[in-house]
User: Fold these one by one.
Assistant:
Number 1:
Amino acid sequence: MSLPAWSEQFDRDRLRNVPSTLPPIITREWAWAGATGAGVRVAVVDSGVDAGHPAVGHVDGAVIVEHDPEAPSHVRFVEGAHGDVFGHGTACAGIIRSIAPDCELFSVRVLGARLTGKGHVFAAGLRWTLEHDMNVVNMSLSTGKQDYFGLFHEIADAAYFRNVMLVCAVNNVPGPSYPSEYASVFSVAAHVDKDPLHFDYNPEPPVEFGAPGVSLDVAWLDRGRLTASGNSFAAPHIAGIVALTLSKHPRLTTFEMKTVLASLADNRTAALRAG
């Protein structure tokens, strides 16, 4: 079976155990037991979200960001309910909802019907999430264009200092992708485990976290479902876990959340993961 690029970093024969460094009080029970995601605002920057899909339930806010040569900065924002033009965003939203069912979910549509888009539109959508007080942003998309390196780095740094937690999938094919490879974001690739709360920590670049993303049953268009693989579907698992943890510990900063997740990963010592 062909796996998405970077998944090999989480192969059980390759991924090494990482020594524990935090006190044993940091357990999964401490992190999210009893939490539901309530009070956490999560944006899905993607192809849109079908609010009527049973796996999604509802969407708390939505905006379409699109190219408009007549608009300032060549970008137009259309706020209000919209659908999913591909199915990809609905899949990601459904995963997040399954982990953090009571989070506030927002759809930021920056991709078209072919799951393609423009870099400046993607950047504008990401800026919208910062301006509208999102806590967690799921980006199962990225750009490999070097011309956008500086722009996305600037936005990612702004998110970091505003404590907006950016979760980004790396590309499914080898090569650099932004903003997924920045140290300020939670970079994610797929591993073969199916348990939604099981994830790995990789101390070597370019990907920090591995989560389920291979042969998954995901929500799709027309209230349907399909089996899909990709780093795209690993990222919302981490976004959901971040939202779940943040609902219980709302004062955690981005670097503290990274430390907590790294400490609770499956390839940490069993004693630290107890609970």
Number 2:
Amino acid sequence: MSTNSSSAPMPTRHGNAAARAIDLRKVYGSGDTQVTALDGVTVEFRPGEFTAIMGPSGSGKSTLMHCLAALDDATSGQVFVGEADLTSLGDKELTRIRRDRIGFVFQAFNLVPTLTAMENITLPMDIAGRKPNKEWLDTVINTVGLSDRLDHKPSQLSGGQQQRVACARALASRPDIVFADEPTGNLDSVSGAEVLGFLRRSVQEFGQTVVMVTHDPNAAGYADRVLFLGDGHIVDEMNEPTSERVLDRMKSFDGAAHAGQVT
């Protein structure tokens, strides 16, 4: 995959990793109902790179993203965004990190139905009392191809357009890192390709860091690397993935499961 544009400023400003986890554990429940979702995961996400996280159901991929994005607490271990140790911060500091340094794209779009596309895009900054950088905002809007839809409310937009609004919202504040949780899960193949193409461009042209959870080998093919989780562990990593290579690797998970091995 292409690397960062030499003329594009890097949005990640803190340390050598956009985000990282050290010996991360997440346990739900206790006793007979205890489930270990993450079992000592150590991983780093480099600035200006597009990483896909994949694995079978129950592998821990969504839990890993939620802990990295400060949406869920770790049971033990450390999570950093830049040099900020999320596991040592209080609620106010975590809220500020989520607002100012992390962008989110969810499967369900999460747009406010009473607001226009533009108002949804700028909403996080409006809540924070910050004015968007107009030049950057125009760049993001032009890149997602929504210049003629900014006055429309979500109900007047297609699913693909709504998700592009969500992508623009995630990038508008120039976060250190964008987390995308199954961003094409509710989209048809054409709309999904548009959204994935935009995320790819945000990495190539703007130096953005993107981490995406997906079950779709075609989506993973847009990434620079793929991390494969199984049973709460990172079990493999693939650089310069293609959809065909990813699909072959995912089939091996199915084979291991049928053989009664670790999945």
Number 3:
Amino acid sequence: MAAAFEKLGLDSERIFKDGKPTQLATDLLDYFTERSRVLENEVEPKLLSAEQAKDLFEKTHAEFDHKCPIPMNKQKGEKRAEAFLTALVNMMVERHAEGLPCDYDPGELTTFTRGGEPLRTLARRVDGAFPSPINPIAIWEIKEYYYTTTFGSRVADGVYETLLDGMEIEELREHEGIDLKHYLMADAHFTWWKCGKAYLCRMFDMLHMGYADEILFGREVVEEMPRIVSQWVDIHRQRNHAASL
């Protein structure tokens, strides 16, 4: 790290001074070590190939009479299939939302109102909003790239779009006192682990900075969303109770 500081024209004594590592160096080492542990032991095993995602989708779809949208991917020919991760997210929301509405594909910007007038509109459309994109409890982005062969700028942009959303939500929370749950769901073992591991690091950083409430990878959508959606339902009930008082 001291050598890296010198290469960048920075003060290496901020890292190593009087023959000893500084507190900054110790903090950085601890952070990098934990990031590596989480990515290698908790993220990589959850990421799926297209074949694994298809199997999980088909198994999950057969368990329940789903009415939610099951969208198709944007591929052509042999790669044309259901958008596996998006479908899994939709199915998990439908199963555990206890009949409450959900907008599985908002065609409008996320907007908040207060006292009968508009308060704030976020900059981007998101992939899902509960219960709607108007005064939502939760919003989410889905990044599934099962058939990509290289890690292009479009994939990288997806990470930074979520970062932008997180910054806007932080401003909303700090200045308006509105708590909006913000999630990212990502999958494709080859894309993220083989080609884009550096962007998994950025995701970990984004979570650590508080710009996303949770990030779910691959099969975690099925494992963790029952808990998450139940939390949304509880918040919805609390809001309705408060409004009735």
